[in-house]
Amino acid sequence: MSEIYDCIIVGGGPAGLAAALYASRDRYKTLVLEKFMPGGQINNTDRIENYPGIAQIDGPGLVQNMQKQAETFGAEIKMGSEVEKLEKLQDGKIAISCNGETYLSKVVILTPGSDYRKLGVPGEDKFRGSGVSYCGTCDAPFFRGKHVVSIGGGNTAVEETLHLAKFAEKVTMIHRRDEFRASKVLVEELLAKANEPDSNIEIKYNTVATEILGDKKVEAVKLKNVKDETVEDFACDGVFVFVGMVPNTDFLKGFVELSEQGFIKCECAYLRTSVPGVFVAGDCRVGAAMQLATASGDGVVAAMMMKQYLRDPKWWNEKVSDTLQPGGW
123-127, long-range: CB within 8 Å, 24+ apart, which pairs? Predict the structure, then answer.
């Protein structure tokens, strides 16, 4: 506990690596604690085409570039380091318990990310990246002229289904109920589109997916009607699962304020949490856009706001300014 860091980042995904780059480049002593290996979900992505400035790259390649860039400026990255507990000390520092060790830091940036909620059906894991996707915004262009199935009934499911319809030849939306949970305006837009002559959107109500079928890639999905229990093998080229996100924040319960769904509450402008000196960035926070580019942007914002807090800890209690000029920029 003798070594004190200026900034400890919990999580080594895009948000954490971006924060590490900015913090270390500003010559702050920076440590990233990552429970597995840097990258998080993005390591499972074969092709990225929507990261500004990069026409195409795979997930692991982008992560390697981000990690190397942060380390070039002195960021220390410890893999296999699962954080178990955080504690705000009386002197203002934050103690982080990890693998039997305790680290001390003046500032903590929380970037543990989130995971896509899965259906938990046979074939889902097997075909992830080979026809099974959890992000229409990311992967819809890869299914031009194809027939895809979308699963879900909330706002994200409706929005992403409408987005898929701009690329796929046909989209069949599967919903386990007979009405949607999404907001009224979104449902009206979806139904208007589905009811158009020659629409490429079809909706199957009271239906669930019980298995995803195929050889080397998705070829069909087994569907079951929950009312009459009829079963069919429904041919398709891809399955998009939109049933929610699960933030990786269980270890933070009792430390920072969380939403009912477990996302970290914060001010979306400065990314300050309920604990002074603790910022948040990326998909684990309330209001996150759940995109690679926005997660990276969050990491940058958190690292820049950290400078204001280290200059003047009293800044933490100041309201968000309508000029958004922390530090007199």
Answer: 123/211, 123/212, 123/213, 123/214, 123/218, 124/212, 124/241, 126/212, 127/212, 127/214, 127/217, 127/218, 127/239
Amino acid identity of residue 226, one-letter, is: V
Please, how many CA atoms are within 13 Å of residue 307, restricted to the half-sphere of its CB?
17
Q: Which of 6, 7, 98, 135 is catalytic?
A: 135
CA atoms of 291 and 295, how far apart (whole Å): 6
Type and span of the H or E element at 10: strand 4-10
- Beta-bridge partners for 67: none
Contact criterion met (CB below 8 Å) for 110 and 273: yes
Q: At what angle do helices 14-25 and 59-72 cross, to 10 degrees?
A: 20
**Could you confirm whether 58 is annotated as catalytic?**
no
pLDDT in tens, 179-199: 999 999 999 999 999 999 999
139 an active-site residue? yes
Mean of pLDDT over the chain: 95
Catalytic residue among 98, 138, 266, 284: 138
> Residues 6 or more apart from 148 whose CB is under 8 A from it?
164, 168, 170, 171, 172, 236, 237, 238, 239, 240
How confident is the model at residue 276, as a pLDDT? 98
- Decide: 161 and 191 in contact? Cβ < 8 Å: no
DSSP state, residue 250? G
Integer Cα distance of 10 and 107 in angstroms: 11
> pLDDT category, 329, cuts 50, 70, 90?
very low
Interatomic CA distance for residues 268 and 266, integer angstroms: 6
CA angle in degrees (0–180, nearest 5) for 241-248-259: 90
The structure tokens listed for 13 are 């995904």
Beta bridge partners of 232: 223
Q: Residue 193: is it exposed, middle or buried by C-beta count within 10 angstroms (0-12/13-18/19+)?
A: middle
Catalytic residue, candidates 6, 139, 237, 298? 139
Active-site residue flag, 7: no
